[in-house]
Design a protein that fits this description.
The complex is a heterodimer. Chain A is mainly α. Chain A has 26 helices and two strands. In chain A, α1 packs antiparallel against α4 and α3 packs antiparallel against α20. The longest helix of chain A is centred in the C-terminal third of the chain and has 47 residues. Chain A is globular and about 125 Å long. By secondary structure, chain B is mostly helical. Chain B is elongated. The chains are: A mainly alpha, B mainly alpha. Chains A and B meet through α26 of A and α1 of B.
């Protein structure tokens, strides 16, 4: 089965839903979208098994779809590379993507912001398009095609965050996401251009083959880069690629879009901002491992950025009350961990964490969505609590996924996070800064366990603090809650909701009872929760006596990263393992205790407001507005002035010429006589 | 009489005609001055024909007179219409096209 089918099916879903989805009754567009992604997943799975059946050194399949452009020496094809890394990624994308599509069908069936259901098809249109673009990203065999997918997922992120574009918050957040991403993309583009200048091709195979020869040269070899002195070209390129990864994977300083992106529907947050899009940066760095291995300085920088981001975001998560904001900062923090891993050269560990993170973070987000759905739009954790008995499936899946996030012993998160920390400490032998980063990682792990345990307890344990709505609406206090709202704000009328005809699947509106979400929403939760616990058993540390199957993940990916493989075979660091157990279990228990009946965040609001946003607003945004005002002035006065000026000049001239029209017949006769005299005089004198 | 004298009379007549067209207000008087200019031209033609001994000038006078007649017909028609509409033939009164 050709690979392009993986991209084709969601594209078809996009086309069908986009063109005629509006006319189809409610669940049909969702069903079409789900089927499309399921088909992609099946193809990916079949190809994966086929790949696994091949010998280890023959697991790189190239499939060219067509020649995209040939302009002189610049030749780029739409062609796909299916190797161990892209196989893992595509399974994550289509698998988790399918589960989230299923969940969305249930979640979006009753949208308070869209009572007539006119927007429903649009949601699935863009969700399918996202899967298509993400597939292109991970399957591409050259940087330019990857960039197409890269930009495409950014675009779909814009559409999906701004799904409820009538809400100011969503519209602004979507713009912010796209613009900040674009800054990263600029770096990526520059990196690609340098690559092409030096190597003459953008295919991975060509670039990596020429890496040590053509890219190891000083950057000043390229015309215009003389200012870089002796810095190698590959360092410059990797730095630029890092800028791109920083934007897409929400690291400092380009993370500011991710918390705001919570203004979109929760399944979108789960898919795009937890499981797939944000991991594109990690994937890109892992794919370019050959280049990064040639520039230790960049790797150190990446590790540092990751460590700083992980810590800062983890602390910020302790200061927020909105359930989705906590998860958003948690995602930024976990991405920081992944950055730390690639920065230490532990590409396998980073991808392993991508793998486990996709499961547990998606499960957490979907669980949060389930809670929000059940509480009719309530997102403030201070107003939750006691949901364990009322929403059993959501409770247990959230618990399992939360344990995984906190790296509680024997969950998937435990194995992947500890592997990362171990590898970072290992890299300390090359450069002692890595040891400091490792310490930061440990600290962040403590914080992660704290806020996750706390969040779990605050939402599910203790007494119920949520408002018992009498007419089906959440308390008006919703509007004061900071953070992303999905419902009830803005111009959408509330009144329609009271009509008895609206989907009253929530049953007891009048008694304010809360009940579990429908099966179509809880089934994905269960599947993801199982993954959150058991997916980790593919990457168990090399404790003597552990069967080889439990190392399957590392064994699968190792051939791709020959240099990093050496680090993976090192002996188990028992100290770190013990610390990991302590942090995971202890942090969770402490957090849980702190969180029961908690009615405020752990850190004060001022910590929540500590953000690069303020700095950006005062510098970049203000500067942008100033430039816009100046240009507007130029447009209004100079350019319009010229246009008006032409008119004024013509009017002046005509005002003068008008004076000849005296309507005085004898004046005209005089004119004729004088004219005749001049002409005759001219001919006489000549 | 030597021909320059005839040409001088023709010139004077023509000038008087031009000045009359420019100065007089009555439309019919302006027409008469135009006729005067035409006849001045006729005089010049005939004098030249006599002086050169050729018939060309004399024949041309016929053309001029024919044109003059036609022009008068049309012009008087215009003046009559003007009078019917405006009750005046003073050219200074005809100034609707003033800016």
């Amino acid at each position: 089965m050709p690979l392009f089918l993986i991209v084709l099916f969601p594209l078809l879903g996009f086309a069908v839903n986009g063109l005629i989805g509006k006319r189809l009754p409610k669940p049909i567009p969702g069903a079409i979208a789900c089927l499309a992604v399921l088909a992609s997943f099946v193809v990916a799975l079949l190809r994966f098994f086929d790949l696994a059946s091949r010998p280890e050194n023959a697991r790189a399949i190239n499939e060219t779809v067509y020649n995209w452009m040939s302009a002189g020496s610049f030749k780029v094809d739409v062609s796909f590379l299916f190797d161990q890394l892209s196989a893992i990624m595509i399974l994550i994308v289509t698998g988790v993507g399918f589960l989230i599509h299923l969940y969305s069908v249930g979640y979006m069936a009753d949208d308070h912001n869209d009572p007539q259901g006119t927007l429903y098809a649009r949601y699935f249109t863009f969700l399918n398009l996202f899967i298509a673009f993400m597939s292109v990203l991970v399957l591409a065999d050259n940087y330019l095609l990857m960039f197409v997918g890269w930009e495409g997922v950014g675009l779909c992120s814009y559409f999906l965050i701004g799904y409820w574009f009538q809400l100011d918050e969503a519209a602004e957040a979507s713009k912010k996401a796209f613009i900040v991403n674009r800054i990263g993309d600029f770096g990526f583009l520059l990196g690609m251009m340098l690559m092409f200048l030096a190597v003459g091709s953008l295919k991975y195979a060509d670039v990596f083959a020429a890496a040590s020869t053509k890219l190891g040269v000083p950057a000043s070899n390229i015309a215009g880069l003389a200012g870089f002195g002796g810095v190698t070209l590959v360092t410059v390129i990797t730095l630029l690629l890092t800028v791109g990864a920083t934007g897409k994977s929400a690291q400092i300083p380009l993370y500011v879009w991710l918390p705001d992106a919570m203004a979109g529907p929760t399944p979108v947050s789960a898919l795009i901002h937890a499981a797939t899009m944000v991991t594109a940066g990690i994937y890109m760095v892992a794919r370019s491992a050959v280049l990064f291995e040639l520039s230790p300085a960049t790797k150190l920088l990446i590790c540092g950025i990751g460590a700083l981001t992980a810590l800062a975001a983890g602390l910020t998560a302790l200061a927020h009350n909105d359930i989705k904001k906590v998860l958003a900062y948690s995602t930024v923090s976990q991405l920081g961990f992944m950055f730390m891993a690639v920065g230490a050269g532990a590409y396998v560990a980073a991808i392993f964490h991508v793998f486990t993170h996709a499961f547990f973070k998606a499960c957490l987000f979907l669980g949060a969505g389930s809670v929000i759905h059940a509480l009719h739009g309530e997102q403030d954790m201070r107003k939750m609590g006691g949901l364990a008995t009322k929403m059993k499936a959501t409770h247990i899946t959230f618990l399992l996924a939360g344990l995984a996030l906190a790296a509680f012993p024997l969950t998937s998160g435990f194995f992947s996070k500890d592997e990362i920390i171990a590898q970072v400490f290992n890299a300390g032998s090359q450069n002692s800064l890595y040891t400091i980063f490792g310490g930061v990682g440990l600290l962040t792990a403590v914080i992660t366990a704290l806020y996750t345990g706390r969040q779990y307890a605050q939402v599910f344990l203790g007494e119920s603090r949520f408002a018992h709505a009498t007419d089906g609406h959440s308390a008006p206090a919703l509007s004061e809650v900071e953070g992303a709202h999905e419902t009830h704000e803005g111009q959408v009328t509330h009144e329609v909701h009271e009509a008895p005809a609206t989907a009253d699947a929530h049953g007891a509106h009048s008694t304010g009872e809360v009940h579990e979400s429908p099966t179509i929403m809880t089934l994905p939760l269960w599947i993801l929760a199982v993954g959150a616990i058991f997916a980790g058993y593919l990457g168990v540390p090399h404790i003597p006596g552990v069967p080889a199957q439990l190392h399957g993940f590392a064994t699968w990916l190792d051939p791709l990263f020959p240099r990093a493989a050496g680090a993976a075979e090192s002996s188990v660091n028992w100290v770190l393992l013990g610390l990991g157990v302590l942090i995971g279990a202890g942090g969770w228990i402490v957090g849980r205790t702190m969180g029961i009946n908690a009615d405020r965040a752990l850190l004060p609001d001022s910590a929540a407001n500590l953000s690069l946003d303020k700095i950006y607003n005062q510098t970049v945004v203000a500067g942008g507005f100033a430039l816009t005002s100046a240009l507007r002035w130029v447009d209004d006065n100079v350019i319009d002035g010229i246009v008006r000026g032409v008119g004024t000049v013509i009017m002046l001239i005509s005002g003068i010429l008008r004076l000849t029209q005296t309507s005085y017949v004898r004046n005209y006769a005089l004119g004729m006589a004088l004219g005749a005299a001049v002409i005759i005089g001219y001919f006489m004198v000549r | 009489m030597p021909i320059p004298y005839y040409l001088a009379i023709s010139g004077i007549l023509f000038t008087v005609g031009v000045v009359g067209v420019l100065v007089r207000r009555n439309a019919i008087i302006i027409f008469m001055c135009i006729e005067l200019m035409l006849n001045a031209a006729n005089l010049a033609f005939v004098a030249a024909a006599h002086s050169l001994g050729k018939m060309n000038g004399q024949v041309f006078v016929f053309f001029v007179m024919t044109v003059a007649a036609a022009e008068v017909a049309v012009g008087l028609a215009i003046i009559v219409t003007l009078f019917r509409n405006r009750e005046t033939i003073d050219v200074d009164e005809v100034n609707l096209m003033k800016h």
